[in-house]
Amino acid sequence: MRTTIITLLALTTAASAMAAETNLADRVAALEAKLAAVEQPAPNALNTYWKNGFILETTDKQFRLQPFGRIHVDAAFFDADPELEEANAPFDDGVKFRRARLGLRGTVYENTEFVAEYDFAGSTAFRSVYIGLKEVPVVGNIRAGHMIEPFGMEELCSNNYISFMERGFTSAFTPVENTGLMVFDTAAGQRMTWALGVFKDTGALGDSVSNEEFAVTARLTGLPYATEKGRDYLHLGYSTSYRGVGDTGYRARARPESSIAPFVVDTKNLDADTAYLHGLETILTLNRFSLQGEWMLSTVDLDATDKAPSSDADFTAYYLGASYFLTGEYRPYVRKDALPGRVIPNRNVTKGSLSGGAWEIAARYSAIDLNDGTVTGGEMDSVALGLNWYLNPNTRLMWNYAMSDVQDEGDVDTFEMRVQIDF
């Protein structure tokens, strides 16, 4: 009897132990499953991170949002010949918000992109406001809306990255932002880019109603030389644009190296039917040294007048500039855009210290000729010197000096400073 009872107790104890082990194993397996679920977030989980700006992106990268903006505050001081002021306008010293922009860019369902950017400096105006499709068969990429036409290099390059406060005199011919449709893509392992678009000259809010002022604009670039680390490269490019001219006529004009200065060479409004633009561009970067230049030609088909038959007027502009990083950085190159990119200092300026950052010196010669035939818009050339301090990838201080000579009118010395931040 005693043996039977002991046997029954032993069997009961063993069964309980086995049941407990089974229950524990199930609980451990359940916990491991929950932990695995935590470690593998849902595809639509939203991640936030910083990459020279705040970015919100889903885990599967189907959706992406990035708020962005920039603030550029300028101060300028002039010393102009009296004859130059009498022929144009007073050169008054001043300060100016050159740019104050806010925008949002993003990707929806991986293949649809959008940008909505507004500038509040002076008055509210569209900058880039467009919708695009990525990786479209045959054509590559498509954009529709208000955007920069694919013409020139310095004009397409972000003003956050250019070496001088103002672009060279070739900007007198570049068409900048207009509303249209553009296709573009890369080739040869991103060593070549091409872009082609149809545009209409528009106002500050991207709209226009008329039967004229349409343009066809294209850009082709190549990267014949580039090292693996990207510190050395040679870029070449060509742009062209055929433009219909509206009732207001064709006009090209330029200031002496400052947006606060008055225009000193100006064709005024010319009666014309069409204009043809051509541009050549190049960048040679060898480690911390960079050489950059552009040349542009604007051929305008002038209407006949009582004083002269119909004819073509050719206007030209060019610049050649060089920069050198004293602290060892270099100008990076963004292959998909075929443009210089953001400078990254080797060491940022930190709180409580003014040491660090990237220091860049630059020099540039620019010239523009708006005289041809019956058109006397004037000629100007300029020598500019620049000093840039990149406190971090998003903040920069700039100092510029320029001596500009306007033919037959006089000279002006320009001293400028800019404080800028972008995100």
User: What's the N-to-C terminus distance?
Assistant: 87 Å
Number of beta strands? 22
Spatial strand arrangement across the major sheet: 3-4-5-6-7-8-9-10-11-14-15-16-19-20-21-22
Element pattern in H and E: HEEEHEEEEEEEEEEEEEEEEEEE
- DSSP strand (E) fraction? over 45%
Structural shape: globular
Class by SSE composition: mainly beta
Key features?
single chain; 10% helix; 423 residues; mainly beta; 2 helices; globular; 16-stranded antiparallel barrel; two-stranded antiparallel sheet
Write up this protein.
The chain has 423 residues and is mainly beta. The protein has helices at residues 2-39, 82-87; strands at residues 46-50, 54-58, 64-80, 94-108, 112-119, 125-136, 140-148, 177-187, 192-200, 214-226, 232-244, 253-254, 265-266, 272-286, 289-302, 311-325, 333-334, 339-340, 358-372, 375-392, 395-406, 410-422. 10% of the residues lie in helices and 54% in strands. The strands form 3 sheets. Strands 3-4-5-6-7-8-9-10-11-14-15-16-19-20-21-22 form a 16-stranded antiparallel β-barrel. A two-stranded antiparallel ribbon has the order 12-13. The chain is globular. 33% of the residues are buried. The mean pLDDT is 92.
What is the topological layout?
Layout: H1 2-39, E1 46-50, E2 54-58, E3 64-80, H2 82-87, E4 94-108, E5 112-119, E6 125-136, E7 140-148, E8 177-187, E9 192-200, E10 214-226, E11 232-244, E12 253-254, E13 265-266, E14 272-286, E15 289-302, E16 311-325, E17 333-334, E18 339-340, E19 358-372, E20 375-392, E21 395-406, E22 410-422
